[in-house]
Automatic annotation (TrEMBL):
Residues 2-233 form the ABC transporter domain. It is found in: Cell membrane. This is ABC-type multidrug transport system, ATPase component. It comes from Salisediminibacterium beveridgei. InterPro entries: AAA+_ATPase, ABC_transporter-like_ATP-bd, ABC_transporter-like_CS, DrrA, DrrA1/2-like_C, P-loop_NTPase. NCBIfam families: drrA. GO terms for molecular function: ATP binding; ATP hydrolysis activity. Belongs to the ABC transporter superfamily. Drug exporter-1 (DrugE1) (TC 3.A.1.105) family. PANTHER family: LINEARMYCIN RESISTANCE ATP-BINDING PROTEIN LNRL (PTHR43582). The keyword Transcription regulation does not apply. GO terms for cellular component: plasma membrane. Gene3D superfamilies: P-loop containing nucleotide triphosphate hydrolases (3.40.50.300). The keyword Metal-binding does not apply.
Length: 310
């Protein structure tokens, strides 16, 4: 339905986006993961016709949309990373303003506003000024604005950043409903790996302006199919213990956790005796050890060298 072909954006001598090709099939929910500065928001800006690419193309049903912004904007809804609302207007007035920009008016506009307010659970607050809203409520109204014109494609750029757990859950359930029951095509970026795993059919991983991997959740996890994750819970975290674990041959990743450390090692290689010897030498009291299949977060760290929130 929507695809980019070697999409590139240069700022002076730097390629913020470098030959990015992604595809969204009709009715799919597709995740775009990447650490800060990976180029996700710039890619979204080009797809949504807010920024012209330096080279490459954006295709809608096989036809280029470059220079044809009106056609794609009619079917595209965008939820930006930064809240785009007028603080001194009420929720109803904001929705009315953006609805008119979409060409809606009269009873049709009023009906759409009522439906979207109900969808985001804020009908009873429709006459309150946006500046009185919590961060989560503002993001829900932001989403309502993007849905006023019944878009076929919805782009969401980190829609749950910095909000309360209740609003986050509400937004995730709404996105799932829009995709699974309404058949809306969704491109979703987030700093929360579990959100993308929960919502998306396929995932693209982006770093330094390039797509470095893509596939389903299970396909991406197979990148580390010959490895396993070992969680070591300790009584008191010890940075020297974490640092020296890197020196043990065969340990490929060491990541600090709230309970201790997580190791990524090749399957079948016995490293626990060396880990326990090191713990004893450093007087680290090990409370628990468990072995699990590597997660999507482990794959991301393996590919980028950074965690998603870095």
């Amino acid at each position: 339905m929507l695809e980019t072909h070697e999409l590139t954006k240069k700022f002076k001598q730097m390629n913020a986006v470098d030959s990015v090709s992604i595809y969204l099939g009709k009715g799919e929910s597709v995740g775009l993961l990447g650490p800060n500065g990976a180029g996700k928001s710039t890619t979204i800006s080009m797809i949504s016709t807010l920024m012209k690419p330096s080279s490459g193309d954006v295709l809608l049903s096989g036809e280029s949309i470059l220079g044809k912004t009106g056609k794609v904007r009619k079917i595209l809804g965008v939820v930006p990373q930064e809240i785009a609302l007028y603080e001194d207007l009420s929720a109803f007035e904001n929705l009315q303003f953006f609805g008119r920009i979409y060409g809606l008016k009269g009873s049709d506009l009023k009906e759409r506003i009522a439906e979207r307010l109900e969808m985001v659970g804020l009908t009873d607050r429709k006459d309150d000024l946006i500046k009185t809203y919590s961060g989560g409520m503002k993001r829900r109204i932001n989403i309502a604005c993007a849905l006023l014109h019944d878009p076929e494609i919805l782009i969401m750029d980190e829609p749950t950043v910095g909000i309360d757990p209740q609003s986050r859950t509400y937004i995730l359930e709404m996105v799932k409903l829009l995709n699974e029951e309404k058949g809306m095509t969704i491109l979703y970026t987030s700093h929360y790996m579990e959100e993308v795993e929960r919502l998306c059919d396929r995932i693209y991983i982006m770093d330094h302006g390039q797509i470095i991997a893509n596939g389903t959740n299970d396909e991406l996890k197979r990148i580390l199919s010959n490895e396993e994750a070992i969680y070591i819970d300790v009584e008191v975290p010890n940075q020297e213990f974490s640092d020296q674990l890197f020196a043990i041959e065969g340990i490929r990743q060491v990541q600090d956790t709230e309970e201790g450390v997580k190791l990524i090692v090749a399957k079948g290689i016995r490293k626990l005796p060396e880990v326990f010897q090191l713990a004893e030498a450093l007087q680290v009291n090990v409370l628990n050890v468990r072995v699990e299949v590597p997660s999507l977060e482990d794959v991301f760290l393996h590919l980028t060298g950074r965690t998603l929130r870095d």
